[in-house]
Design brief:
Layout: H1 11-47, H2 55-81, H3 87-93, H4 98-102
């Protein structure tokens, strides 16, 4: 016989449970976003060898690296909010390139972006 968890709990317990659910859900979304950003970068690299890449391809790659750095930053922040502080394991498990790690952070605005 199934019983609803919320029927036996005080309101603060229900809220605590729902907040934990949302943190876990957000963590999953951020992890998938990082995986997708890294996959886009790897696909681009496979299709465009660096030695022969024209300036437009290098610029497109820089954008992909920045996007992956932003996705990494979002994931690290969400992990830390869940109490997961070991980023070394994350970098290894997701095979995050050093270049992406160096670009980890919020997106650059037009006034702070470098040419």
């Amino acid at each position: 016989m199934s019983r609803d968890f919320r029927l036996d709990r005080v309101p603060v317990d229900v809220l605590t449970y729902e907040l934990a659910e949302e943190r876990a859900s957000a963590l999953g979304r951020m992890g998938r976003a990082l995986e997708q950003a890294l996959a886009k970068l790897r696909e681009f690299d496979a299709a465009h060898p660096r030695a022969e890449a024209p300036a437009s391809a290098r610029q497109a790659r820089r954008i992909l690296v920045r996007e992956a750095g932003h996705a990494l930053w979002m994931f690290v922040v969400q992990r830390e909010s869940c109490g997961l502080r070991n980023t070394r394991t994350l970098m290894r498990d997701y095979n995050v390139p050093g270049e992406v790690q160096l670009n980890m952070g919020p997106p650059l605005t037009a006034s702070t972006a470098s040419p």
